[in-house]
């Protein structure tokens, strides 16, 4: 495939210019916009940013880059949190901005076919008339392609699964410019290696996703939400475990610690009791929602939860979940001028209480302010440490706290990232978590991207 | 790794004898038992059958076989349906018979850790006291390892997913004898390539699974079942689509055509109306089960379903589902001395009615007797053609009918196998279904099993 053994960036850019004309951009401002994500990692400028409009153009770009050994960094909404899209080895950032068509919605099959640049909100707006929804909600209005690449999830994963469970099929441009499809429109299949799941979560290191077939779910007839305060973290988490074991299909169940509740009260003008708190949401028929809420209330009461009240009022619910989504901004508002250093682990649910307690104790013993919030039904939680970007000692302390939490997660059978992914930030934990399986991953990377041009310096190549 | 470039079977058997003593068996009867599965494909004798007792022994076996270029065929309950475990290139069949320990049950994490030879019924018996269950039910009392390797599913997949959704983690001996682990005990993760899903469904061609961490589900407080007869296939399938779109979490919804109902009536001494029929099952709290049943009854009535009656009587339910599971034997009983040639496709649910109608019309126009039954909530159905094993023309006709059905499935975006897998029988459809993605699969096989010793002549190597 390759006609050179050294990188020939100038030649690549010339070739790309021929394909894309003014949709190959080398201006400083556009390159800067694609030089970093929402993480703490330093910016690296790509050599150029490409805006293809269709799969054929992506395939042409990949072929030109392969011939010239120039890295390709696929990019969606630039909302990743661990440096995934920073072009650490330079190269061409290829944005899905102009590939944002909803190709097909098939309500009768409960699926939609979209280009990778479609955002989740865009898709849900288009679905309004169908009675169906795409429930995965990572907070940001991320692109579906980006969410697939990072195996994203969020608050509703406890009920509807993550991107892992919600992608039926893909179209992918492989690193030699071949277009393949994976999966099918059938709900299940037993034919061949599961390439769909291999590309989901591969963070752009194995190919460029050009089309996704996603599963849709019925918009529930009724939605109710509830809040309950607990005397301690343990009681809150035990309530969640019992709800899940009882088989209540909670649609959301989020934990906020005292600091987070304080922040949310201030930022979103609420007057919640300042205590470890669960936010619940239930989906279903009116009778079933009432029954679920009642069972959850009983279980909460058994664990000394207080102030449980459930509501089907849409305004109240929207306010509550907006407050939850704003928890990160609320945290920042606690200390003006600060930035947030985030953590994201997932553990077996039986180890969740001790994991949260340990993370909280670390924060209490530290000179940094921090909070814990979590998608507790999945055993996934986030820490947010407030750091002064001018102070290296803040940064070092946040890293120390996050790494300690992560080591503890691995020690109890958990994972280094529940939903944010590896990016650059967690490469150092790959071998600790996966052991010799990292070598299997490297062999797959080598087999599918022998030139190493897809998002190099990341998963599959390093770590 | 390999110290020879030609296969040296004698040397391998000597080496294995040293490891396994009398658990390396070369008797004719044991080799014959492992020479074929439940499919129509001709038997091929393995050179020997090995019965390791633990992971270390499996790793030693793999190393000896790799050194001598001798094929390894992993085998569980020998209940595969498409020739998966036939040693088409000879070699050593490695049985999981003696690796059937339940290593750990963690009710609070809703997971169990098992060796690959544990069967689903064995696991459910061990779970009784916990209030949890492992719901995947392919019919046969298959091993968990075998079900994982073939990405098995069955009647409950519509509610609980297939093996794809129910395995959290694996331990695998790779083809060079290295032991790796994949996944974790956390419910979700965004770290690294999804090796768990790569091994699930790989039919023993990429490594030997030595341990599985599976998800458990609460045993529902109440179970109800219902039967409903319909004037035609279309009405039955539309009922299913509407139930799924309404968001009713049916635990099972099975379709049986007229021929199947006739067979079931005769075989299981029932007096069901001879018509296209749905069997439903609902899981949940008593109130919720009642509500689901009522909604399903209303939807059925809208599609001219008759005789809908639901029951929570355990004996009645057991009889019904036993009859469903016996449908294959019931079919055979329709024509004494005959054998069954089976088909297994999965299509987008909107194409299910036409797919079933076309399959039925093919049967009606053929000189063979046949029936259609299906896991219709997933768009998955099976044909069973009754053939006289002495008549090559019966065999040829069954193959023609099955292949026609399969071609139609691919034409409407479906898959060549919903749950039985590729084995030998469906290799010829791999490229038709997956196109150039087959080359990606072959590169993965080559990268992970460069000597080609894991279940050779199957998926990833041929097709």
TrEMBL record, chains A, B:
Organism domain of life: Bacteria
Cofactors: FAD
GO terms of biological process kind: lactate catabolic process
GO MF entries: D-lactate dehydrogenase (cytochrome) activity; D-lactate dehydrogenase (NAD+) activity; FAD binding
EC category: oxidoreductase
InterPro entries, sorted: FAD-bd_oxidored_4_C, FAD-bd_PCMH, FAD-bd_PCMH-like_sf, FAD-bd_PCMH_sub2, FAD-linked_Oxase-like_C, Oxid_FAD_bind_N, Vanillyl_alc_oxidase_C-sub2
The protein's Enzyme Commission number: 1.1.2.4
Family: Belongs to the FAD-binding oxidoreductase/transferase type 4 family.
Name of this chain's protein: D-lactate dehydrogenase (cytochrome)
Taxonomic lineage from the root: Bacteria, Pseudomonadati, Pseudomonadota, Alphaproteobacteria, Hyphomicrobiales
């Amino acid at each position: 495939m390759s006609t050179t053994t050294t990188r020939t960036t100038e030649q690549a850019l010339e070739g790309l210019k021929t394909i894309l004309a003014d949709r190959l951009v080398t201006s400083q401002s556009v390159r800067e916009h694609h030089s970093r994500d929402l993480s703490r990692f330093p910016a690296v400028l790509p050599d150029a940013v490409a805006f293809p409009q269709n799969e054929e153009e992506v395939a042409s770009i990949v072929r030109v880059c392969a011939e010239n050994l120039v890295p390709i960094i696929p990019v969606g909404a630039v909302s990743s949190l661990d440096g995934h899209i920073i072009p650490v080895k330079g190269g061409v950032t290829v944005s899905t901005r102009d590939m944002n068509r909803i190709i097909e919605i098939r309500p009768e099959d409960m699926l939609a076919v979209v280009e990778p640049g479609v955002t989740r909100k865009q898709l849900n707006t288009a679905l309004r008339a169908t009675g169906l929804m795409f429930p995965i909600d990572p907070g940001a209005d991320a692109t579906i392609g980006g969410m697939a690449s990072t195996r994203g999830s969020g608050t509703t994963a406890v009920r509807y699964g993550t991107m892992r469970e919600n992608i039926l099929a893909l179209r992918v441009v492989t690193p030699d410019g071949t277009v393949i499809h994976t999966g099918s429109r059938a709900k299940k299949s037993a034919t061949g290696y599961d390439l769909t799941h291999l590309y989901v979560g591969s963070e752009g290191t194995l190919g460029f996703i050009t089309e996704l077939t996603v599963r849709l779910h019925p918009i529930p007839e009724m939605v109710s939400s509830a809040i309950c305060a607990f005397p301690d973290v343990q009681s809150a988490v035990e309530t969640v475990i019992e709800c899940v074991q009882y088989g209540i299909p909670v649609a959301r169940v989020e934990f906020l610690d005292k600091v987070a509740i304080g922040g949310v009260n201030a930022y979103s003008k609420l007057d919640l009791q300042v205590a470890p708190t669960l936010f619940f949401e239930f989906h279903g028929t009116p009778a079933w929602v009432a029954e679920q809420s009642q069972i959850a209330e009983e279980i909460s009461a058994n664990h000394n939860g207080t102030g449980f009240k459930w509501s089907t009022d849409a305004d109240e619910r929207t306010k509550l979940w907006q407050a939850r989504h704003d928890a990160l901004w609320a945290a920042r508002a606690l200390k003006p001028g600060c930035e947030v250093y985030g953590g994201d682990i997932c553990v077996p649910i039986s180890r969740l209480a001790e994991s949260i307690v340990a993370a909280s104790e670390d924060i209490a013993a530290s000179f940094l302010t921090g909070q814990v919030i979590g998608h507790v039904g999945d055993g996934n939680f986030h820490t947010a440490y407030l750091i002064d970007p001018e102070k290296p000692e803040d940064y070092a302390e946040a890293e120390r706290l996050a790494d300690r939490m992560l080591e503890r997660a691995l020690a109890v059978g958990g994972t280094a990232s529940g939903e944010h992914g590896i990016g650059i930030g967690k490469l150092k934990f790959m071998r600790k978590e996966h052991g010799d399986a990292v070598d299997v991953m490297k062999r797959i990377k080598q087999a599918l991207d022998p030139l190493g041009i897809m998002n190099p310096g990341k998963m599959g190549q390093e770590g």
